[in-house]
């Protein structure tokens, strides 16, 4: 099967199937240490979501965060 034929087949899939395929392909390039970092970050993000949902972690408005970051940049 040619790359063009595969491409046509892929682009005909529904978005969730294309996303699943993308994850599969991207994962095939990942080195073991990269997979470990991604797993650690996934666990950390779940921990933060749980803390936020439990009221143990507050959130800030993105516009305020970006404004604060801009203040710290050299002019």
Number of spatially distinct domains:
2
Assess the beta-strand content as a share of residues.
Answer: under 5%
Number of helical segments with 4 or more residues: 4
**Major β-sheet annotation:** none
User: What is the SS-derived class?
Assistant: mainly alpha
Task: Please tell me the overall pLDDT.
Answer: 92
Helix content: over 70%
H/E element string?
HHHH
Compute the separation of the termini in Å. 55 Å
Number of strands: 0
Rg to the nearest angstrom? 20 Å
Shape: elongated
Indicate the low-confidence ranges by residue numbers. none
Topology (SSEs and partners):
Blueprint: H1 3-11, H2 15-29, H3 32-53, H4 62-71
Protein described:
The chain is an all-alpha fold and 75 residues long. Helix content is 75%, strand content 0%. It is elongated. It starts with a helix and ends with a helix. The mean pLDDT is 92.
Give a quick precis of the structure.
This protein is an all-alpha fold and 75 residues long. It contains 4 helices and no strands. The longest helix is centred in the middle third of the chain and has 22 residues, at 32-53.
């Amino acid at each position: 099967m040619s790359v063009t034929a595969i491409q046509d087949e892929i682009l005909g899939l529904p978005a969730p199937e294309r996303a699943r395929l993308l994850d599969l392909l991207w994962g095939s390039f990942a080195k073991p240490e990269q997979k470990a970092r991604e797993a650690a970050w996934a666990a950390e993000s779940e921990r933060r979501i749980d803390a936020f949902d439990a009221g143990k972690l507050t959130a800030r408005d993105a516009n305020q965060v970006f404004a604060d970051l801009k203040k710290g940049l050299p002019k």
